[in-house]
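Continuing the batch. This is chain 6 of the set; chains 1 through 5 are on the previous pages. Same settings as before, nothing changed between runs. Recording input and output for traceability.
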Amino acid sequence: MGAKFEIGRIRGLPVFIDASFIILIVLWGQNYFVGGNTARMSIGFLVIVGLALSILLHELAHAVVGHRLGVAPSHIELNGLGGLCYWASAMRPEAWPRIAISLAGPATNLLLYVLFTLLGEMPVVSSHRLVFAVTDTLAWANGWMFAFNMLPAFPLDGGKALEALLGKLLSSGNARLVVGAIGLVIAAGCAYIGLGLGTIFGIGGGTWMLLLAFMLGLENFMAIQSASNPPWQRRN
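Output for chain 6:
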């Protein structure tokens, strides 16, 4: 998406951060760092670290499941849409491995949502205001990431899974066209919310939602443009 740099490797798998990920983190955490409240700044720091780790675990789940199913991961990129796992080998043509690989990430966020929710209900956590605020926020964030990533749009996991499923009924190009068209509608919905005309999952208008609408719109427009290309020349 933009300038990116490597921050390390996990069992030999490179992890990169795109400049747009920094923007995402700033937009997510900016409210914690205004006003000079030390406790709130501490919560914000822990939430940002927890959010980044949640996104990384999401992408690692794709890589692990892909590796188990014979698709070698190339590298992980954290970016303005959360992250992407890139592949060094071709994706398997069968629908079920592609669906399993796509849904591994959201499944991880769902598991983290349950984990943080249960932690927040423990007396030792719920009685500590700062710790509870962190677990409660991370539970909400992972629940939101699960729901968001299940949307049927590119480059989200729900879009990739739907493309694989529709590929059993339609040609691969037509399956991509359908998902891309749905993705443009979702991008328009995000723009509607970003302009302050509505809310979803408790999120209203703002710069972050408008940025999300732009990136989703661009990705799905380019996916539609590439639908007639051979599979190895397509994006995502």
